[in-house]
Structures are given as C-alpha cells and as structure tokens.
Amino acid sequence: MRKLDTNYKNTWCPFCGNFGILAAFKKAIQNKDLNKIVAVTGIGCHAKLADYINLSSFYSLHGRAIPVAEGVKLANNELDVVVFTGDGDSLDEGISHLIHAAKRNADITVVLHNNRLFALTTGQFTAVSPEGFKGKSTPMGAPESPLNLLLLMFASNATFIARGYSGNIKHLEELIKRGLAHKGFSIIEVLTPCVSFLDFTAHYNEKTYVIPNKDLDSRESALRKIEEGEKIPLGIFYEVKKKPYFERALISKKEETVEQILSELI
Ligand SMILES: Cc1ncc(C[n+]2csc(CCOP(=O)(O)OP(=O)(O)O)c2C)c(N)n1
Ligand code: SF4
After folding, report:
1. Quick one: angle between helices 65-75 and 95-103, nearest 10?
2. What is the average per-residue pLDDT within 69-90?
3. What local confidence, expressed as pLDDT, does residue 261 receive?
4. What pLDDT does residue 193 have?
5. Which of ligand 1's atoms lies nearest the C-alpha of 89?
6. pTM to 2 decimal places
7. 3-state secondary structure 239-264
8. Which atom, in ligand 1's list, is nearest to the CA of 85?
C-alpha cells in the first residue's frame, strides 16, 4: 500500500467520506500493474484524490472528467481508466457526458462521490441534494426533489451499476475490483458524507445494507433494487456483457495510423 502514497498534505476535513473511498481504491488496485492504471478526476474535494495517490492521473476541468477518461482509453485501450467525480461534477456540470458514456458503453470505471452537494465551494445544492436542503444557494430550502442517479444510468443502458458506501471500505473495495474487471462502462455510486456541510453518516450507518450478488442480468430485479425506498441497498444492481466502445470505434484499430483513418473518412 505504501507505494501508492504521495507527499501531498491531505486537506480533507477529518472524518470526510473521501478517506474511505481513497482507502478502498488503494486496496482494490494494490496487486495490479500500477503502470496500467490512470485516474482522472473532476474538480472538487473528491478530485484531490489525484494528489493523494501515486498513479498516473489527470486533473480535468469541472464536469469534464468523463470525456477526458474516454480519450485516454481510446488512445491506449490497454489502460484501466478510473474516473473520480462528484455529484456536482457529473450530475450538474457534466451530466450529458455521464449519460453518453453509459450509452456508448465507454470502457471506463466511474466512481461517483455522492455527497449530495457542491462541497469544495462550501455547500451549494446539486441535482441529488435532498428536497428542503438549506445551503449557500438555497437558504430557504431546495424546492426540487433529487434525481435518482442509478435510475438515470439504468435508462442510459449502463452495463454495470453499483452502489457503495465510504463507511464500508471492504465492500467498496470489492465493488471497485468488480467495476475494473467489467469490460465496458461501470458506474459505482459511492454514498460519502460531507461532514462539514451535510453529514449523513448516522443515517447511512443505520439505513445501508449489503445485497447478495444475484440476478445481476435481470432488468426487473435491477429496477426493484434501484427504486427501493425505505432502506438503502449497497452492492451490484445490474451487470451485462456488451462489446465496449473502444472495440467498435474505428480509432481503436491499432494497425491504422491517424492519416489512414482520415483518408478513409474523407
Ligand atoms: C466550470 C466551473 N464551474 C464552477 C467551478 C467552481 N467549482 C469548483 S469545485 C466546485 C464544486 C464541486 O462539487 P462536486 O463536483 O460535487 O465535488 P465535491 O467538492 O463535492 O467533492 C465548483 C462549483 C469551476 N471550478 N469550474
Ligand atoms: S468539505 Fe465536505 S467533502 Fe470536502 S473535505 Fe470537507 S467533509 Fe469532505
């Protein structure tokens, strides 16, 4: 694990859920060929993960981590490309990228740090903030109800859909391993409390529970799990096999040069 450490000073707040995500990711990849893993981040508290792990990484623009990751994968499809993004990053600023990456089955793993607000900018509401949430941009309480991220991914034809919790590191480690092993697009929503602006730690500790890995290719079963309301299920909700985008995209044919590809197109 030590070889994955860096010398950066960690500036996450004590007890922030991001620590759990970093720990789970380090454990998930510790026995892999680290030269073949690239981490791409958005901008926000979640994105500092790139500073805290000794891997090839790319700090992208706010909301643009996913297209950058897709580009990395197309340029070298032997790499495992993992996106670390926030709910503000990929459900507000860059939501269309998330939908299209799922739809085209881009071969990337998206770890979405869902703390249900824009944290680095001190607590504005996002598409997944709870209704009534009082933050910097909604002092009277958010008047909108939250988006169901996993339902959106299901409707976008994502081929691997999972949810973890930063407070259950062992389970999250397994989810990340499975997401990395999946050929094609994998989305792992991680419930991660922002202890400074919207602390859901006690709620998640009480409500989350791990579901068994079964009926993973059943759309009916996936929908049931995704729409469950009372308790909060964690685990893999859906997984099916489908050819990943880079195998279908013209540019992935290694024998062709850019000039050859362009001459075929023109
Ligand atoms: C295009 C653009 N818009 C807004 C900002 C300002 N900004 C920086 S971080 C951030 C919040 C990030 O929130 P989220 O993606 O949810 O990540 P978190 O901080 O919660 O981990 C915002 C709005 C920016 N840097 N770039
Ligand atoms: S502001 Fe919230 S998300 Fe950011 S480091 Fe602090 S606890 Fe974590």
Report:
1. 40
2. 96
3. 66
4. 98
5. 15
6. 0.94
7. ECCCCCHHHHCHHHCCCCCHHHHHHH
8. 15
Number of residues that make up the chain: 266
pLDDT band per the 50, 70, 90 thresholds, residue 155? very high
Tell me, in angstroms, the distance from the centre of ligand 1 to residue 44's CA. Answer: 5
46 Cβ below 6 A of ligand 1? yes
* pLDDT value for 262: 72
- Mean pLDDT estimate for the chain: 95
Q: Are 111 and 188 in contact (CB under 8 A)?
A: yes
